[in-house]
Amino acid sequence: MRLGVFDSGSGGLSVLKSIYEAKLFSDIIYYGDMARLPYGSKDKESIIQFCIEALEFFKSQKIDLLIIACNTASAHALSTLQKLASFPVIGVIESGILATQKKLPDLNSKLLVIATKATIASNEYQNRLQALGYRHISAIATPLFVPLVEENIFDGEIVQSCMHHYFKPLDFNPDGIILGCTHFPLLSQAISSYFNNQSLLIHSGEAILDYIKLHFPTLKSNHTELSFYASSDLQSLKNTARFWLNLP
Amino acid sequence: MRLGVFDSGSGGLSVLKSIYEAKLFSDIIYYGDMARLPYGSKDKESIIQFCIEALEFFKSQKIDLLIIACNTASAHALSTLQKLASFPVIGVIESGILATQKKLPDLNSKLLVIATKATIASNEYQNRLQALGYRHISAIATPLFVPLVEENIFDGEIVQSCMHHYFKPLDFNPDGIILGCTHFPLLSQAISSYFNNQSLLIHSGEAILDYIKLHFPTLKSNHTELSFYASSDLQSLKNTARFWLNLP
Question: On chain B, which terminus has fewer CB atoms closer than 10 Å, C or N?
Fold first, then answer.
């Protein structure tokens, strides 16, 4: 089985890592749209067009399954890609929702979704959670968290003031916080501490492995061949991949 | 005379505004690479490639002069574009340097350049100032200033903590601060106040009008036809242009 992993940049490597280590696929082809990142502040039509172009690349790679590791791309383009592809296409929002169901099955749980502007504007998380019966859902776009992580700033004064800026309108402590962007798990400790370590943090990308195992239970491969492609700056993507995946 | 103005996004509209109001050109064609913004965190080779593609567009528009309104693009691609174009290509770094010479001719002036990572890494500002004889030049990449402006956050706690983060290593009050990114003038007040209003702020983009008047003194046009193009999300660019330029 050949797996494709698509992300707007290198953030999806965290998703790739857990799948790679689980030894499920003979080949994993990762494509990062490094030229056009970040997607989170761009408009819906552009995001869909970028994803369709990525899909054309993955078709040429003869993959059997495609994961959209980027929440923003999943939020806006998943259904379009599913219509255009002859193989299954899965996104991180579905897996994030599945993880929420497993970890916080009580429909009275107070949920907070944080993500990019585009993801929050799509209402994908909110609508799906509501459709499942959850009654207390808040959603906040926290766009500044992305450049903070890209600057390797994970705590301290700036992070505190950004959290204060975004979270001060909240008048409750969430039971669960869905980290709806591949960058946000790197801020887990700061976010958790802001809410007095009383909230369960759900990383939508991490949950995709469970999702694959649930829907494709027979997958197994002794060896996985990794390939990396990018619309620009492939070297930087490969360097990050080496670091994340402990590759030589 | 037909002028082309190129920017990675909509930030160059501030440059366009002053030129438009000066009534110099019969046509101004603005192109924003909205699909691939921001350039400031991308690698040199990618930036040069993006700019070459933009140049191809401007060649098809039969322009007589091209302004690179983006500091990052000017820093990395100007000399390449000048070699490839049959018309003059000018960038905002040259005009920023010219403005510094006029406003702070004393070569003992303490200068601070702030810009994106890519612009600072190019050393363009630093080398040119040094070549002119300036002896006290500091340069700091302030990448978080870009998303702050894009979020319309121009003052308050987050801006203060970001400035503290970037400026605390400085052990002097600059005589002049070169704002080496089209976004930064929107933070002028906060930056000026941080340094007790004792520093002269130089907006590299604003200075381009002086640069044009100096090198092309006979330009004049009663009417200017404006056209806008973008690699994606043209609507958002046009909306911003309407706002900036007070167009109907």
Answer: C
Query: CA–CA separation, B145 vs B151, rounded Å?
Result: 10
Q: Mark whether A162 is an active-site residue.
A: no
φ and ψ of A2, to 5 deg: -105, 120
Q: Work out the minimum CA distance from B205 to partner chain A, whole angstroms.
A: 24
- Structure tokens belonging to residue B98: 């010219």
As a whole number of angstroms, the distance between CA A216 and CA A88 comes to 11
Q: How far is CA B145 from the centre of its chain?
A: 14
Q: Token pair for residue A162?
A: 């950004």
Closest to B146 measured CA to CA, from B202, B92, B186, B192: B186
DSSP, residue by residue, A4-35: EEEESSSTTHHHHHHHHHTT--SEEEEEE-TT
User: In chain B, what are the domain boundaries?
Assistant: 2-91+206-245, 94-204
Look up residue B7 and give its two tokens.
């920017």
Instruction: Report the percent of chain A where pLDDT is more than 90.
Output: 95
| Helix or strand holding residue A59 (H, E) | helix A44-60
Q: Which CATH architecture has domain A94-204?
A: 3-Layer(aba) Sandwich (3.40)
Query: From A44, which residue of chain B is nearest by alpha-carbon distance?
Result: B233
* A148/B42 Cβ within 8 A: no
> Do the chains contact at B43 and A232, CB–CB below 8 Å?
yes
Same fold, B2-91+206-245 and B94-204: yes
pTM, entire model = 0.94
CA dihedral A238, A243, A244, A245 (to 10 degrees): 80
Residues 142-171 in B contacting A (C-alpha not used; CB under 8 Å): 143-144, 146-148, 150-151, 153, 156-158, 160-162, 164-165
Q: What is the dihedral of CA A141, B41, B125, B98, to 10 degrees?
A: -50
Identity of the residue in B45, B161, B233 whose CB atom sits nearest the CB atom of A46: B233
User: pLDDT digits over A8-30, tens only?
Assistant: 999 999 899 989 999 999 999 99
Name the residue facing B46 among A35, A147, A148 (closest C-beta): A35
Quickly state the pLDDT bin for A207 (edges 50, 70, 90): confident
Is the domain spanning A2-91+206-245 CATH 3.40.50.1860? The answer is: yes
Q: SS3 for A60?
A: helix
The interface predicted TM-score (ipTM) is: 0.92
- State how far the Cα of B69 lies from the Cα of B209, in Å rounded to an integer: 11
**Is residue A213 over pLDDT 90?**
yes
Q: Which residues pair with B201 in a beta bridge?
A: B177
- Note the pLDDT of residue A206: 79
Reported as a pLDDT band with limits 50, 70 and 90, residue B205 is: confident
